[in-house]
Amino acid sequence: MTTSSTLDFDVEALRADFPILAERVHGKPLAYLDNANTSQKPRQVIETIDHYYRAMNSNVHRGNHFLSQQATNALEAARRTVQAFINAREDREIIFVRGTTEAINLVASSFGENLRKGDEIVISAMEHHSNIVPWQMLCARKGAELRVIPINDAGELMMDEYEHLLSDRTKIVAITHISNTLGTVNPIKRIIELAHERGAVVLVDGAQAVPHEAVDVQALDADFYVFSGHKVFAPTGIGVLYGKASLLEAMPPYHGGGAMISSVSFEKTTYNDIPFKFEAGTPHVEGIIGLGAALEYLRGIDLDAVAEYEQELLHYGTEALLGIDGLRIIGTAAHKTSVISFMLSSANGDVHPHDVGTILDNEGIAIRTGHHCTQPLMKRFGVPATCRASFAFYNTKEEIDALVRGLRKVQKIFA
Ligand SMILES: Cc1ncc(COP(=O)(O)O)c(C=O)c1O
User: Which residue out of 245, 373, 383, 404 is catalytically annotated?
Assistant: First the structure.
């Protein structure tokens, strides 16, 4: 137990698994508070990838030599790890893609073939661009309409408005589980129930949820659930599309090429079964194996204690930041994860978030500044950009204290 937490949660032991956290930046200890953007990797993941290239590197699903079988076995074991982690019914419901963005594009492109003119797609006002633009492209292709669930001033979905938007024309509801900008945790089970009552299919963008809470796709009854490896302590360039087998089986392929076929002739090509039908070409083998290692790592720690500790960081951080005169938090939902977006002002008015980020960087503190790929949400709150601190289980209250000192320094500079 460290001094940093009142919980029985050994942060220092976990931090020791993440080599980068011991780095210094501009001569100061690194305080990495940009986890909603991307997460750091434990040595277990780094060593798994290192081992793969030293001892196993080979192409998968196509060679009958020893190394190819080793690599194929490791890849398929990672698929089963993902299946267990999100409690999918079958491993063939797990499709490996490059990330959340590719997963949503795959569903919009392939499942989207079912849509007709006048059909409707429901999204929300807090979506990441990757859960807006693919649906706009689909609407343009099919003559469908995009409907947007509004949010209140706290950054919570207006559920009564959602119920009014749903109709027999609604074919897809595509919604984020947790907002990357506001930290709002959406009532996803209820959202899915209501959509299903209207016969609509639901895609959940889980990019920000899987790093913070145990996700059970069967308990949620999600039709599609998508997330990115790099946000869950795994490598970049790898992500997951979970889809119910019955839906995936009925969908046309997304990309054509090797591995996704059953037979090819110039006259006719037949397709492989799921998941391979959606995995054309050589996959990101070390990324997949690294993702498996990251999820195994998470399974080795108490995820309930993680969630509780992150809530403690959220409350500590919220109180500490609100103690700064001229700081305004954007996103004050009752149910939030450990993400805090804010605007800082000095005696001379609002300080631009980019200036805040640059000064904090000089102090060794990494946060994200900008629109966070949520421009419509920035417009809703009347700001061009925000500062965003986002905490993982390896962050500490001392790092939040450093953030507060850094912000006071920004105010002095701009006074
Ligand atoms: C909620 C949400 N959806 C989608 C994405 C896109 O993820 P990726 O860039 O890994 O595809 C992000 C990344 O920030 C996100 O936070």
Answer: 373
